TrEMBL record:
Domain of life (superkingdom): Eukaryota
Organism name: Mytilus edulis
Protein name: PCYOX1
Lineage: Eukaryota, Metazoa, Spiralia, Lophotrochozoa, Mollusca
Molecular functions (GO terms): farnesylcysteine lyase activity; prenylcysteine oxidase activity
Pfam families cross-referenced by the UniProt entry: Prenylcys_lyase
Domain named Prenylcysteine lyase: residues: 52-408
């Protein structure tokens, strides 16, 4: 889901606050919010816009009910009961100091069925739950293509996370969501060293001592390599052959890249006017705020009108997600005018075509931890944050010898016994 929108729970959790009102939260931390509610939704099947909602919520719900029947109503309750109610348990679990060495154990702590969701497709699960092919092929497919660039053949867990990602209550931080990590660094009073890690070397085994060779970003010499020693390491980037260049040296048990592939996405930002005629609409004003696609045979995944990070109206900027780059002809097909265009290629999230037993661990070696292991279950900001908290708890417990809260069941009654980090 990237950094486009952000949930209230995520920001509260990042800065250590309980669930409080949006307005009071922003007041406390000095950040303003921009609501993303009130937009319109369309779904394109390659030939026509099969559904386009009104900006008025009641009318939009009636239109979706007409198209999908009770599926559109039931999905809200289903996501809440199947995912959110149990997902929210993680905040109490981690507030109680509990940590897990595997992704499956962490998911099982919230609800064991989450592990089962890693081994069944979202399409098969929703068919089992009674949802229609039309709803699955249009609405669920559309959500997955805009959130993950993939289809309803992905595992059910990431599929349900994707459906939660189209919730109407999402919002962004005024000035850009980058302010959240900037705020976290400031609150942590961390010593940030700007550089590219090249080598991780095991110097001593028991207790472990590590050397880090890194290319210094702000040094006089561009290629200058510096070395620092650490007792605990946290790897916070995908260990994938096309992404990772870090070498691990001196380990008796080899630490190597994991074989999972990452999905290559093209994000194209276009300042201009969409071609309403091509999409069968009367004018650019009729173009939906978010246009999803219901087939992987369509070149683009979604087209969404963007809000300014400073919440200033007046500029029409659209974000186009595609799995392959847009060429000039495609841009001319989808847009009448193009005043500015920016294109970014990036490995955005994993290809979700694997089983639960192939997920990477959170612990790579004694006191080396891997935050990105969680991405193989589902990639989202909330997932990264709870993974980071889990790793912080693991490091704390391993360092202090408090091992009774690692890989142990969570006791609801004992939740008041918290480990603060």
């Amino acid at each position: 889901m990237g950094l486009d929108q952000i949930s209230h729970a995520y920001l509260c959790y990042c800065i250590g606050l309980d669930q409080i009102s949006h307005a009071y939260l922003c007041y406390c931390i000095g950040l303003d919010q921009i609501s993303h509610a009130g937009g319109t939704l369309g779904i394109w099947n390659g030939e026509e816009v099969v559904v386009k909602t009104s900006k008025y919520k009641v009318v939009a719900m009636a239109q979706l009910l007409w198209r999908y029947g009770m599926d559109i109503y039931n999905i809200q309750n289903w996501v809440q009961t199947e995912l959110m109610n149990d997902f929210m348990k993680i905040y109490d679990i981690q507030a109680g100091g509990h940590a897990y060495t595997s992704v499956t154990d962490l998911l099982a702590a919230m609800n064991p069925k989450f592990v089962d969701y890693l081994s069944i497709t979202i399409k098969d699960l929703m068919k089992k739950e009674g949802y229609s092919d039309k709803f699955i092929n249009e609405m669920v497919m559309g959500a997955l293509r805009t959130n993950y660039g993939q289809t309803t053949d992905v595992p059910a867990f990431v599929g349900v996370v994707s459906m939660a990602g189209v919730d109407d209550g999402l919002w962004s931080v005024k000035g850009g969501n980058k302010k959240v990590p900037e705020l976290l660094v400031k609150h942590a009073k961390a010593n940030v060293i700007e550089g590219e890690v090249k080598v991780v070397r095991l110097v001593e085994e028991d207790p472990p001592l590590y050397e880090i060779d890194y290319k210094c970003k702000n040094c006089a010499s561009v290629n200058e390599i510096k070395t620092r020693e650490y007792d605990i390491l946290v790897v916070a980037k995908p260990l994938h052959p096309d992404i990772n260049s870090i070498k691990f040296e001196g380990f008796t048990t080899e630490i190597k890249n994991f074989p999972h592939k990452y999905h290559v996405l093209t994000t194209t930002m276009i300042k201009g006017s969409p071609n309403a005629t091509y999409f069968g609409l009367n004018s650019p004003d009729d173009f939906p705020t978010e246009l999803l696609t219901g087939s992987d045979k369509i070149h683009f995944n979604s087209i969404g009108k963007q809000k300014s990070v400073n919440d200033v109206d007046g500029t029409s900027v659209y974000k186009v997600f595609t799995n392959t780059p847009l060429d000039k002809e495609k841009v001319k097909t989808y847009f009448n005018s193009e005043d500015d265009l920016r294109m970014v290629f990036w490995r955005s999230y994993p290809e979700y075509d694997f089983k639960a037993d192939s997920l990477p661990p959170f612990v790579l070696h004694d006191k080396i931890y891997y935050v990105n292991a969680i991405e193989l279950a589902a990639s989202a900001m909330e997932m990264s944050v709870l993974s980071a908290k889990n790793v912080a708890l693991l490091a704390h417990h391993h360092w202090t010898g408090n091992l009774d809260k690692i890989d142990e069941p969570f006791d609801v009654k004992g939740a008041a016994d918290k480990t603060e980090l």
